[in-house]
């Protein structure tokens, strides 16, 4: 017997479950629920469950506007802004080009958010991309679901967070260890997080909330410090405007280098779609999603741009590029000295620890440790872009196939087109040979897109084996039925029948 969960729950915290439709709250009135159910009767259903079945069970609609906005902000602000500016600057070669990519990444993220808002308001249920792919690509049955699930299982990890934790905690301890020592620390983080979520899940949720606040406080402090530096109040930085003169000098002309840098920018913005995964928990989901999404991403975008300005005010592009994955701690060392650098390293390490929600061992052990962080970011980004392209195309498929469906939010058509063009560039450019044939790691420059495609291909092969080969070889078929758990959650169960 095979169980098929109504919504993908990978990568979600232990409290992100599905609520009962019509659960009591001040904002989620029975009229709201009735309206959603009425709209659902006019909307093509993703998967086999109705809206009422799909949103049954769990904790209830307990997330309001503030909580949903904070959920997005807490997910976006991770290790990326504290670590990736160095690699991004090194790839594109100049301050101007780096800042331009941060702006472009923000625009692409907002374009993607508009696509998700339209689809999320059409299908106000948990699951995000899984739901939208199921709605747009109904045949072959379950193919879109399996491919997306495979990508989430293999690449929905935060091994990059483990690496950043290891590097920053060593800076804080003012101690150098071997490469395998750093690997050991990274693996210890994975084991610790797994044990916390397994044996003390409530503690895990509290820790994530506390560490989420720490991340935001650290980022705001960096921004304020940058203003102080630009105001000429820090004597250690005699010329804070030096990096911004002739800011595009030395910019790269390689499409490959811009693509790999843009992957890292977009990874830093990742999380703008976080509310879509838990819409079953959100009170008045359509209205809340339309406000919380732009608000959360907008706040993070402003903070990110100001943080980058702060980094370049305190150090030259060359110094930023050579700081490696610890650019934020380097910034504090330049401004406040070695003691502050070690103190911030602890906070950045805690931020990384808070982002480690899922488990992976392979990448940390197999990839050269100096290359692991950049390779992981690129590897995570490429299959995600493939998924995003299919979601963006699916938006237009649904507009053509079901024009009568109510759309509480509808994106202006050039916005999803811009999003698709950006993602298309990210799919093609990594195969363009970079200068000297070398990417941003010691590994072959074409390796991460090939591995990303291979992961998606594994999903296709798994679906083919499950839906085609096994039934033919065993001379059976699948009989589907629905099962309700004690908390009201509805599952689709697959039984074998001869």
UniProtKB/TrEMBL annotation:
GO terms for molecular function: L-amino acid transmembrane transporter activity. The chain crosses the membrane at residues 63-83, 95-121, 142-166, 186-205, 212-230, 258-279, 291-314, 320-337, 344-369, 381-400, 412-433, 445-465. InterPro entries: AA/rel_permease1, AminoAcid_Transporter. Pfam families: AA_permease_2 (PF13520). One of its GO terms (cellular component) is membrane. It is a multi-pass membrane protein. It is found in: Membrane. Keywords: Membrane, Transmembrane, Transmembrane helix. PANTHER family: AMINO ACID TRANSPORTER, LOW-AFFINITY METHIONINE PERMEASE. This is High affinity methionine permease.
């Amino acid at each position: 017997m095979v169980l098929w969960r109504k919504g993908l729950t990978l990568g979600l915290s232990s409290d992100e479950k599905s609520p009962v439709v019509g659960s009591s709250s001040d904002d989620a009135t029975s009229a709201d629920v009735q309206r959603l159910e009425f709209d659902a009767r006019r909307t093509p259903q993703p998967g086999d469950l109705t809206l009422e079945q799909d949103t049954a069970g769990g904790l209830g609609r307990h997330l309001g506007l503030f909580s949903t906005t904070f959920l997005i902000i807490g997910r976006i602000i991770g290790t990326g802004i504290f670590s990736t500016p160095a690699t991004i600057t090194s790839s594109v070669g100049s301050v101007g080009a780096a800042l331009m990519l941060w702006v472009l990444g923000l625009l692409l993220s907002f374009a993607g958010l508009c696509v998700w808002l339209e689809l999320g308001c059409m299908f106000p249920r948990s699951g995000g991309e899984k739901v939208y792919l199921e709605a747009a690509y109904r045949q072959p049955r379950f193919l879109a679901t399996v491919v997306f699930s495979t990508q989430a299982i293999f690449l929905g990890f935060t091994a990059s967070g483990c690496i950043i934790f290891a590097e920053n905690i060593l800076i804080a301890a003012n101690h150098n260890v071997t490469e395998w020592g750093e690997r050991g620390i990274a693996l210890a983080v994975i084991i610790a997080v797994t044990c916390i979520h397994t044996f003390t899940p409530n503690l895990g949720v509290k820790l994530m909330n506390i560490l989420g606040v720490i991340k935001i406080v650290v980022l705001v402090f960096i921004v304020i410090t940058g203003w102080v530096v630009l105001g000429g109040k820090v004597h250690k930085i005699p010329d804070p405007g030096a990096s911004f003169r002739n800011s595009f000098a030395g910019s790269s002309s390689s499409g490959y280098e811009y693509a790999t840098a843009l992957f890292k920018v977009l990874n830093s913005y990742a999380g703008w779609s976080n509310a879509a995964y838990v819409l079953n928990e959100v009170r008045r989901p359509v209205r809340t999603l339309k406000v919380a999404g732009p608000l959360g991403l907008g706040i993070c975008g402003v903070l990110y741009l100001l943080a980058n300005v702060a980094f370049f005010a305190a150090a030259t592009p060359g110094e930023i590029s050579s700081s490696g994955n610890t650019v934020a701690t380097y910034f504090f060392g330049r401004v406040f000295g070695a003691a502050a650098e070690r103190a911030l390293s602890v906070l950045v390490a805690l931020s990384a620890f808070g982002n480690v929600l899922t488990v992976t061992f392979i990448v940390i052990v197999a990839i050269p440790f100096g290359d692991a962080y950049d390779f992981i970011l690129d590897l995570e980004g490429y299959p995600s872009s493939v998924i995003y392209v299919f979601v963006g195309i699916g938006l237009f498929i649904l507009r053509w196939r079901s024009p009568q469906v109510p759309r509480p939010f509808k994106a202006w058509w050039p916005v999803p087109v811009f999003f698709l063009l950006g993602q298309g560039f990210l799919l093609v450019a990594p195969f363009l040979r970079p200068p000297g044939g070398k990417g941003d790691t010691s590994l072959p420059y074409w390796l991460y897109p090939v591995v990303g495609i291979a992961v998606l291909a594994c999903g296709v092969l798994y679906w083919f084996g499950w839906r085609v080969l096994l039934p033919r070889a065993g001379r059976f078929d699948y009989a589907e039925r629905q099962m309700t758990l004690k908390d009201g959650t509805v599952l689709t169960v697959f039984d074998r029948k001869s």
